[in-house]
Specification:
Layout: H1 2-30, H2 34-52, H3 57-124
Length: 125
């Protein structure tokens, strides 16, 4: 049984790695959603309006820089939140798959054992 438990523990560790990788990929894609794009567009509009109004570049550039930093922070924060959520989803899905596969393997093993026992009983009769 120790080997089976070690194998199961190794499978769980592999599942955690796979779930982390998938969650990271999904979060990387999803963090730049429509809200972030609208915010970035608003910063661009503000910068353009300020430049057309004749505001000095020394004033506009810190505003633009602040807007870009805010966009990055919002995207980074959203990515962290999504990663946690996606990780839990992926982990639950993969563990469910592992349980199904383990149950199927156990059922197959029991079926094979039953057939062997039946064949041995028939042979001894």
């Amino acid at each position: 049984m120790d080997q089976a438990e070690a194998s199961l523990e190794q499978a769980r560790e592999e599942i955690k790695r796979i779930a982390a990788r998938r969650a990271e990929q999904r979060a990387r894609v999803a963090r730049w959603d429509l809200d972030v794009a609208v915010f970035l567009f608003a910063v661009l509009i503000i910068v353009i309006i300020l430049l057309f109004q004749g505001v000095a570049v020394e004033i506009v550039s810190p505003i633009a820089l602040f807007g870009l930093v805010m966009v990055w922070l919002v995207g980074w924060r959203r990515g962290k939140q999504l990663y946690k959520s996606f990780y839990r989803e992926e982990l639950a899905r993969l563990e469910k798959t592992l349980v199904k596969e383990t149950a199927a393997e156990q059922k197959i093993a029991e079926t094979i054992e039953e057939k062997v026992q039946k064949a041995l009983r028939d042979r001894w009769k």
